């Protein structure tokens, strides 16, 4: 049986703060103290931190069926997100990794948006009923991916991304993940195939033992400005493929 934690996580359910710090002074030869006027640069205060996006704004940035015709998309539900909120780990430093695979972004986002997608290969025109049936059966083993967008105020996105990156190193040797009272053993976390897009990316391969069966899942984070996109992928066939096309399409929509 597949782990409830992974199954629910996948199938069910910054900004760079620009500061202008410059000092300059203008002076008068007669009395530099009395007559000096603060320069425009010195009077300029630090630029305000970039504002995080809302749920509604992020929803418009989610990749959709119109972007990828060969994928089937389904909306995420509040219940799925709520279930993910129970995700935790036996090692506190690994909790952020467990949450990343359970619809829960790191840190305190200003807004979130989620969707689910699965690659749906279709039989070519003119194929026999037998071939069509095989194609449908093969689709059951396709990689299913949850996509979570999270936006942050100030440097929240950078910090959230860094937290997951740090955890991926500290927890490389494995940990336990628990959700809704069910525990799954993660055996190792290793770097995944490189991905392109965004200001920085973190591709990971997460291997786990689900009731004695080895599963290989994929976890990818892409940060663009003050938004972090998280992709968590699983296949009922046991080995998930990195959702490269999905990642690239979503990164493109983020700008």
Précis, in short:
By secondary structure, this protein is α+β, with helices and mostly antiparallel strands. β9 and β10 form a beta hairpin.
Describe the structure.
It contains nine helices and eleven strands. It has a nine-stranded antiparallel β-sheet, sandwiched between helices. Strands 1-2 form a two-stranded antiparallel sheet. It has helices at 4-10, 32-35, 40-43, 55-59, 78-84, 95-100, 129-139, 156-170, 244-254, and strands at residues 25-26, 37-38, 71-75, 88-89, 111-119, 143-151, 175-179, 182-191, 200-210, 213-224, 227-235. The longest helix is centred in the middle third of the chain and has 15 residues, at 156-170. The two termini are 40 Å apart. The chain has 255 residues and is of the alpha+beta class. It is globular, with a radius of gyration of 23 Å. The model is unreliable at 1-45 (pLDDT under 50).
Features:
255 residues; two-stranded antiparallel ribbon; alpha+beta; 9 helices; single chain
């Amino acid at each position: 049986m597949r782990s409830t934690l992974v199954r629910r996580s996948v199938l069910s359910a910054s900004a760079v703060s620009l500061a202008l710090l410059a000092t300059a002074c203008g002076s008068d030869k007669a009395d530099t103290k009395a007559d000096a006027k603060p320069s425009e640069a010195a009077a300029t205060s630090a630029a305000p931190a970039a504002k995080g996006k809302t749920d509604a704004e992020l929803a418009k940035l989610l990749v959709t069926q119109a972007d990828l015709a060969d994928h089937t998309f389904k909306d995420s539900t509040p219940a799925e997100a709520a279930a993910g909120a129970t995700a935790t780990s036996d090692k506190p430093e690994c909790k952020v990794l467990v949450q990343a695979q359970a619809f829960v972004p790191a840190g305190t986002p200003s807004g979130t948006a989620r969707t689910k997608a699965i690659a749906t290969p279709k039989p070519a025109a003119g194929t026999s009923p037998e071939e069509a049936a095989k194609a449908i059966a093969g689709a059951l083993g396709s990689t299913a991916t949850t996509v979570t967008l999270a936006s942050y105020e100030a440097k929240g996105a950078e910090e959230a991304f860094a937290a997951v990156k740090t955890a991926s190193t500290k927890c490389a040797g494995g940990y336990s993940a628990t959700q809704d009272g069910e525990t799954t053993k993660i055996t190792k976390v290793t770097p995944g195939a490189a991905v392109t897009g965004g200001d920085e990316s973190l591709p990971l391969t997460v291997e786990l033992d689900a009731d004695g069966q080895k599963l290989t899942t994929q976890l990818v984070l892409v940060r663009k400005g003050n938004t972090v996109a998280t992709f968590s992928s699983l296949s009922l066939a046991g080995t998930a493929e990195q959702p490269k096309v999905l990642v690239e399409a979503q990164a493109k929509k983020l700008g």
